[in-house]
Every structure is written in structure tokens, then in C-alpha cells.
Design brief:
The complex is a heterodimer of chains A (307) and B (403). Chain A is α+β, with helices and mostly antiparallel strands and 307 residues long. Chain A is built from 12 helices and 7 strands. Chain A has 2 domains: 68 residues, no CATH class; 180 residues, Glutaredoxin (3-Layer(aba) Sandwich). In chain B, strand 5, helix 5 and strand 6 form a beta-alpha-beta unit. Classes of the chains: A alpha+beta (307), B alpha/beta (403). Bound molecules: pyridoxal-5'-phosphate (PLP).
């Protein structure tokens, strides 16, 4: 049993050192012989057994002797653990390749060796939001998605982008999301203001979209490039809108209207029903991804879902 | 006169080192001894100051080397009490010395070669091969119950057909020494020659080949503080002159035509090709070093160590007689249900104690007794009684917990 572990460990070390390469061959020979119920020719398993228990027996004679006597059980247990961890590593590698995170699509807290800084699972939490249901996202069909701004390109794919203009992780991932939005996809955008003082921007989104759907996407591009500090400066927002060649005051007026306010409230309630707990949250054909992910992750999901 | 072991240890650079963070306890001396710096400098002296070939060229480096080589030969011959320096042939090791005799002596179909039942493979295989190749008869003299030599049985087995008695002088299995002088006397009375495998006696006791009156005596330098890859064969001059060299070539002849050759004098006719000069100079330094220590002192110190181990080790069965006086520097144990290899590895891993496990190249004896192997601690004069006690403490602790 120990030979299986030895084979993998020495196999990897053997890439760098000739001594370990020899040991890896010994381990391979042992594994083959053991699987055919024969004795290890080079007694590698016995040597490892003695070495490991010998390391312990000097200081802790009873423990060392116990390890020696019950080595078969220990090595079975270690091999089992090793195989389980091998399976998990495989799953993690798959997750990392597909979702950009070892832990899968959602933000499950946990260390990912391929992303040690955890950059792809960071979100701006919705603590600052009024009512949040943390941690569990529901499926998109629990809400009426048609109540959000939408860019319909007649594609089979739909991307729902839930972001917040002021929060760092949405801003960090925006360039990647732009790449995604340039793909053959329908886009739904929802502003989920996790930072206070930027809630008013949801109403601007709505009014601009109502005036001309195209305007909302220009507005998004502009706001994600603006320094965070100016997002709370309404005058600056009006200047940006004016730069689109439309009457900013008309839009401002629209934002104060009852219909606008009730739609914004309705959207926020829907996002809370959905269980959004942080931004960015992106649904690619209904599959949620929380936290900033590289474009290839989104792309591979699109590819997986076919045309 | 007791020796100052602590002072002696300063001569051995490896003893100043720690292995795995612990002081080295080297108890595998029967396999290979450690080397003092005097030997190391002799080796270095060859490579740094001479680095030439001996015997052939006439430039100063070569002549100096030839001189130093012959001085080393003299030292070695004196160390073993040989009459003449030319009675020492430099070989690679004991094995080569024995093979040299086996292949050079005129042995014919039906001739009997007698060995003990505790021979190292090096003094067993050459005779098994000769039995196959030439049809000689290899016979084994069984030991007594306590594994010591059975002189009566030997005498009974002697006959005119026995042409050679080839025996291990001191056994690497249990450290017992055969009564070589008596054996030689009996053998000679029957017209047989005697070859002693001196691999284990040369490093541990005073050996006087003339007093013993053996015809050949093979030894290894690396077991007696000398460099690896050097050893020697002592042979009485008149015996060596009768041998037909089996390794021939450069250095073994004075002249050749396309069809004839003129053999060199002894010992050169047996030293084919360029030699292990650094080894020869190192071996010269080693015997000088041992002479300075005094072989009687070596023996006395080893007896002290052997006694400490014999008295201290519990629960394991000793191979050979219990009396340490009869076992030189060797304490070899049968480990019962515990695998001797595992025990050896554990002693190394837990306490940096180096011992040997297995059949020690005496497989035939283990097979005869249906045993798999043993654990052997073999001491030397540079080991201390404290080390012996530490070994005892460690092995007892491990064995107690593993049983
Ligand atoms: C008794 C005996 N004979 C012969 C030999 C062979 O010596 P070498 O390997 O140096 O030729 C040994 C080595 O362990 C030995 O102990």
C-alpha cells in the first residue's frame, strides 16, 4: 500500500533527481508485484516501514513500535486518504479550469492552491444592503428577470451581470465582463449597490434604459471608469449623462418619479429574493459565478452550453 | 597498556561528524573500517605529489613512486611477519587473493579442497567453480555445536587427496578464530597446502604468517584502515614461484616475442597492469598506523567492547560461543521474530548506529541452519565503551518494544 504513495511521491521527485527516479522504479515494481500478491523484490515497503518507525522509536519507543507493528493499517489509511485527496485535487483542477476557482462556481470560502490569494472568490459583501440573505443563491427562475434592463441579441446564451458601480471587485472584473458581453450573448444588467450612497444610481440606470437601451451600456462603461469618489457626486453623474448628448435634467427628473422608484425597489427586492450576497455575481446561462473570474472561465461555460 | 581511544578518535575525520544530527556510532567494522587521516594523506600524497606509474618509467616521479611502493610492500610484509617483501602480492581485496590461488595453483580432477562450514562466499565460490570446471572435490568441515572449529573432525577428514585447506581464519559470522597453526601442521603432514582467508583476522589480531606457517594468506586493506580497492596475498616464496599466474599482461613479464614470454620475478608476475598506487601507499600507511597502535592493544580494546555488548544485550540469541574472548570484535545476533534489516534501519534512524544485517555473505551457513539473517555489530579499536553501552541501551529498548 505504502508503495502506491511512494510511487507518486518519488515519481514527482524523480523528475528532478536521479536517486528518486530509481526509488520510483522500485515503487512501481513493488506496486505491480503487490497487486499480483507477490513480495516486493527490493523490499522497498519494508524499508520505508522501518525508516518511518525508526524515526519515531528513538524518542517514543512505544509509538514507534506501534507504528511498526500496525504499519499495514496505517499505510492502508494513508493510501485511502491519498486517493481521496487525489480525487479532490482532480475536482479542484476541473473547477479551476471551468469556474476559475477550485471550490466551484459559487464563493465557498476555502483556500485554492491555484489561486492562493483567493482573488477569484473575492466579493464585496452586501452587508451594507438593507436586507440580505447571505450565502445561498437561488435560481434565476425564482425572480422575474424581464424587469431588469436587457440587451437582447437573439442569442441562445444569456448573461446576467449583477454588479455594483462602487465596489472594488466588480470594478476589477469589469474588463473581463466587457469581453464576455462582446460575445454572442443576451445581457441582463442589475445594479446591486453594496456601498451606501450609490443606491441612487439604480434609478439613473432605469431612466437611461427607458430612454434608449443603448445608453445604459455607455453609462456602465463610463461609471466603471470613473474614480469611486465621484460616484457619490450627482453633479458629476449629470455631466456624464450630458456628454451622451441628452438632457441630463430630464433624466434626473425621471429618477424622482414614483414609477421609477417603485421599479428600483422591485428590482432590489428581486435581487434579495434571488439571494445575491455579494458582487460581482454573474449568471451564465443560469449558472452562477460569484467573485471576479477570468474571461476564459465564462467562455468555457458558454462553450459547455453549446450554441 | 590501555590505549587512549579518545586521542585515537581524533585521527578519524568521520568520527568528528554527526549523522542526522547525532554522533556517528560505527559498528560495521567487519565490512569496512574507517580511515585515519594518516591514510588519507598517503592517498592524497600520491595524487598530489606523484601521480605517475610505478615500475616502468625512469623519471623521478616514477622512481620515487616505485620506491615508496616497495617501502609499503616491506611494511605490509613486516606487519604479517613474512620473511621477504616479495612474498606480498598486491591485489584488489581478499576475494582477488583467493581467486588468484584458486586459478593459479595446480589443482586437478579429484583433488580435494577443504573449507569450514562458515566460509564467506569469497572462499566458497572459487572452489564451487573449480569443482565445475576442473572436477576438484570441495568438502566442508562442520563446526562444533558452539560454532567453533572441530579439529578432530578436520583431522579425520584429512587424507592424501586433500591438496588444499582453504579456511576463514577469523569468521565474519561469529568472530571465532580457527587454530590455524595446528591446522597447518596437520595439513602439511598430509602434504596439503593451507590458504587462510585473513579478511577478518588481519585487522584485529597479531598475525604472524611464519609462526602460523600457512602457505597463503589473503587480506583486504579496506578492513584494516586502508583504502578501498586494495588488499594483498601473502604466499611463501617457493609456493608463489610454483603458481601459474592467471591474470597476465603488462608488468607481469620482462620480455615477449610474438610466441614467447619471459615472466617477471615474484611478486610482479602476479600484479598485472598498472596498479592502484594510491591504495598501495595508503595500505602502507595503514599498517604503520596499526603497528603504532599495537595489535595487542587493538585486541584488548575490542575485547572490552565485545564484553560490554555481550553482557548488555538482552532477548537476542548470539551466534557462536558466549565467551567474548572467542569472538574478537564481532557480536552477531539472531533476532527471532524481528526482521534484522528492520532492526538495523531503526538503529540507524533513531540513534545513528551503523550495524549490518542479513546473511553477511555467509548464506550457506544460514541456509544450513534454515535461518534468514542476523544483526551484526562489529567493533574496532576506535570505538568506545560508552558507544557499546549506548548501542546496548538502544537495541534493548527497540527489541523490548517490538517483541
Ligand atoms: C571472512 C571474509 N572473507 C572474505 C571477505 C571478502 O573481502 P573482500 O570483499 O574485501 O574481498 C570478507 C568480507 O567481508 C570477509 O569477512
Amino acid at each position: 500500500m505504502i508503495c502506491i504513495i511512494a510511487l507518486v511521491v518519488f515519481g514527482i521527485l524523480g523528475i528532478f533527481s536521479a536517486t528518486h527516479r530509481k526509488l520510483a522504479w522500485e515503487a512501481l515494481d513493488c506496486v505491480i508485484r503487490k497487486t499480483t500478491f507477490r513480495k516486493c523484490r527490493t523490499a522497498l515497503d519494508e524499508r520505508l516501514r522501518s525508516k518511518i518507525s525508526g524515526k519515531v522509536i528513538g524518542k517514543f519507543p512505544k509509538t514507534g513500535a506501534f507504528i511498526y507493528k500496525h504499519f499495514a493499517i496505517f499505510s492502508y489509511a494513508f493510501t485511502l486518504l491519498f486517493l481521496v485527496s487525489l480525487v479532490y485535487s482532480g475536482i479542484s483542477i476541473y473547477n479551476f479550469a471551468v469556474y476559475g476557482n477550485c471550490n466551484g462556481p459559487e464563493e465557498i470560502p476555502g483556500f485554492c492552491i491555484f489561486d492562493p490569494a483567493g482573488g477569484q472568490t473575492k466579493v464585496t459583501s452586501s452587508e451594507t444592503c438593507t436586507a440580505s440573505s447571505e450565502g445561498t443563491l437561488k435560481t434565476l427562475d425564482t425572480i422575474n428577470i424581464t424587469r431588469f434592463p436587457r440587451l437582447d441579441r437573439g442569442s441562445n446564451h444569456t448573461v446576467v451581470f449583477i454588479g455594483c458601480y462602487a465596489c472594488p471587485y466588480t470594478r476589477q472584473s469589469y474588463p473581463e465582463l466587457q469581453k464576455l458581453m462582446r460575445e454572442d450573448v443576451n445581457i441582463v444588467f442589475a445594479h446591486f449597490p453594496t456601498k451606501g450612497m450609490t443606491e441612487y444610481l439604480s434609478a439613473y440606470d432605469y431612466c437611461l434604459y427607458e430612454k434608449d437601451p443603448e445608453l445604459l451600456w455607455h453609462f456602465n462603461d463610463a461609471l466603471f471608469q470613473e474614480p469611486v469618489e465621484s460616484l457619490t457626486n450627482e453633479q458629476r453623474i449629470l455631466d456624464i449623462i450630458s456628454s451622451f448628448g441628452i438632457d441630463a435634467h430630464e433624466i434626473q427628473e425621471c429618477t424622482t418619479m414614483n414609477a421609477t422608484q417603485s421599479r428600483v425597489q422591485e428590482q432590489l427586492a428581486a435581487l434579495q429574493t434571488l439571494g445575491v450576497y455579494g458582487t460581482p455575481t454573474v449568471f451564465v446561462d443560469g449558472q452562477p459565478l460569484v467573485g471576479p473570474r477570468p474571461f476564459r472561465t465564462y467562455k468555457s461555460l458558454l462553450r459547455k452550453n453549446g450554441n | 597498556m590501555a590505549i587512549n581511544t579518545l586521542k585515537i578518535r581524533e585521527d578519524f575525520p568521520i568520527l568528528q561528524k554527526r549523522i542526522g544530527g547525532k554522533p556517528l556510532v560505527y559498528f560495521d567494522n567487519a565490512c569496512m573500517s574507517l580511515r585515519p587521516k594518516q591514510v588519507l594523506s598517503a592517498i592524497q600524497h600520491y595524487y598530489e605529489d606523484l601521480s605517475a606509474c610505478g615500475g616502468r618509467s625512469s623519471h623521478r616521479l616514477a622512481t620515487q613512486l616505485t620506491e615508496e611502493m616497495e617501502r609499503a610492500r616491506k611494511s605490509v610484509s613486516a606487519f604479517f611477519g613474512a620473511k621477504r617483501a616479495e612474498e606480498i602480492i598486491f591485489t584488489k581485496n581478499t576475494t582477488e587473493g583467493i581467486n588468484l590461488v584458486a586459478n593459479s595453483l595446480a589443482l586437478h580432477k579429484g583433488d580435494v579442497v577443504l573449507t569450514t562450514d562458515k566460509e564467506h562466499n569469497s572462499n566458497l565460490l572459487p572452489w564451487q567453480f573449480l569443482a565445475k570446471r576442473k572436477g576438484i572435490v570441495h568438502e566442508v568441515v562442520d563446526s562444533q555445536k558452539d560454532n567453533t572449529f572441530d579439529i578432530d573432525r578436520f583431522e579425520r577428514m584429512m587424507s592424501k587427496k586433500v591438496k588444499l585447506v582453504a579456511m576463514v581464519h577469523t569468521s565474519n559470522l561469529d568472530g571465532t578464530t580457527i587454530p590455524a597453526r595446528e591446522i597447518c601442521k596437520i595439513a602439511h603432514e598430509h602434504g596439503a597446502l593451507v590458504l587462510l582467508d585473513g579478511a577478518q583476522s588481519a585487522p584485529h589480531k597479531n598475525v604472524d604468517v611464519r609462526k602460523i606457517d600457512c602457505d597463503f594468506y589473503a587480506f583486504s586493506g579496506h578492513k584494516m584502515c586502508g583504502p578501498s580497492g586494495i588488499g594483498g596475498l601473502y604466499g611463501k616464496k617457493e609456493m608463489l614461484e610454483q603458481l601459474q599466474p592467471f591474470l597476465v599482461g603488462g608488468e607481469t613479464v620482462t620480455d615477449t616475442t610474438y610466441t614467447t614470454y619471459e615472466l617477471e620475478e615474484i611478486p610482479h608476475r602476479f600484479e598485472a597492469g598498472l596498479q592502484h598506487y594510491a591504495g598501495i601507499l595508503g595500505l602502507g600507511a595503514a599498517v604503520e598506523y596499526l603497528k603504532k597502535i599495537g595489535m595487542a592493544n587493538v585486541e584488548a580494546q575490542e575485547l572490552l567492547l565485545n564484553s560490554a555488548i555481550t553482557q548488555g544485550v538482552e532477548q537476542l540469541q548470539l551466534i557462536g560461543p558466549v565467551d567474548p574472548k572467542l569472538r574478537g570484535g564481532i557480536c552477531n545476533y539472531l533476532t527471532g521474530s524481528i526482521d534484522p534489516h528492520a532492526l538495523a534501519i531503526m538503529l540507524d534512524q533513531s540513534a545513528s548506529i551503523m550495524v549490518r544485517s542479513g546473511a553477511h555473505c555467509v548464506h550457506s551457513w544460514f541456509n544450513k541452519h534454515h535461518l534468514k539473517g542476523s544483526l551484526r555489530a562489529s567493533v574496532s579499536f576506535y570505538n568506545t565503551v560508552d558507544e557499546a553501552k549506548f548501542f546496548v541501551e538502544q537495541i534493548n529498548k527497540i527489541v523490548k518494544n517490538l517483541k
